[in-house]
Amino acid sequence: MNAAHEPRLARVAAIVADPSRSRMLAYLLTGEYASASELAKAASVTPATASGHLVKLMGAKFVVCEPRGRHRYYRLADAEVAHALEALALVAERDGHDRAWAHPERTRLRLARCCYGHLAGKLGVAVLDSLQRGGRLGTTSDGFELTDSGRTWLARLGMNPSLPCSRRRFAYRCVDWSERRDHLAGQLADEMFQHFTTKGWLRRGSGRAVEVTVSGQRELLPRLDEQDA
After folding, report:
1. Phi and psi at residue 55, in whole multiples of 5°?
2. What one-character-per-residue DSSP string does 81-96 give?
3. Taking Cα atoms as reference points, which of 50, 86, 81, 45 lies closest to residue 63?
4. What does the alpha-carbon distance between residue 94 and residue 85 come to, in Å, rounded to a whole number?
5. Is the pLDDT of residue 46 over 60?
6. Confidence band, pLDDT 50/70/90 cuts, at residue 5
7. Does pLDDT of 13 surpass 80?
């Protein structure tokens, strides 16, 4: 096959190969907006250097910019970019996986972290396991849908079992960087993460880290082990 028709992997590799740009992209994996100065600090570069990197990231459609008054804020372009970065991180560390995750800061990330608006890490995997084990998800052509059992379970958690329609994919698998298994992504995963934090069961820590509160240990974790009647 003509090489011109193959995926342009070299272009993507060149973007993420630079350590400063990689640190910026990792910082944006929270799914939130960040200013150029915040990204410069995260990448340990000057504001002028950060601006040059952001121009390249936007040109490659990795990042988008939203002007707000006199300020400009940046975020990852979409969920596909976030999932690609997670997959690259998994491949990059597969030889030293256990050593990499032994560091205390990594241990916090491994327990629970934010992945572009949804929950990842051991807790994120546990949520998907609970949904599947309890028969709360049914398979569709592009991911999952809630079953009657799933809607009942969401109601017990205090969520609206009839989530509003969205243009985004409703629920699908996302390969987890630390666990090398799948956690849940999509609208449902985002709504659940937001609900868990609003209830005070989870609390955002520094960076991508997420902490399980005392209330979460009492109210959320046991519900992941519930068996539907």
Report:
1. -60, -45
2. HHHHHHHHHHHHTSTT
3. 81
4. 14
5. yes
6. low
7. yes
Tokens of 27: 């910082």
Q: 49-58, 94-103, 115-124, 137-146 — which is least confidently predicted?
A: 94-103
Residue 12: is it exposed, middle or buried by C-beta count within 10 angstroms (0-12/13-18/19+)? middle
**Percent of the chain at pLDDT exceeding 90:** 59
The pTM is what?
0.79
Domains and CATH numbers, the chain: 3-77 (1.10.10.10), 96-224 (no CATH)
| The pairing of beta strand 182-185 with beta strand 202-204 | unpaired
pLDDT digits (tens, 9 = 90+) for 152-184: 999 999 998 887 777 778 999 998 988 989 999
Q: Rounded to an integer, what distance in angstroms lies between the CA atom of residue 20 and that of residue 53?
A: 8
Counts for the chain of helices (H) and strands (E), in that order:
12, 11
Q: Residue 59 and residue 146: Cα distance in Å, rounded?
A: 38
The 3-state DSSP composition of the chain as helix, strand, coil percent (nearest 5) reads 50, 20, 30
> Which two three-digit tokens encode residue 20?
């400063």
For residue 188, report the phi and psi dihedrals to the nearest 5 degrees.
Answer: -60, -45
Pair of tokens at residue 201: 């069961």
3-class DSSP assignment, residue 186: coil
Judge contact between 112 and 124, C-beta under 8 A. yes
142 Cβ neighbours under 8 A, 6+ residues apart: 169, 172
Asked if 171 and 189 touch (Cβ cutoff 8 Å), the reply is yes
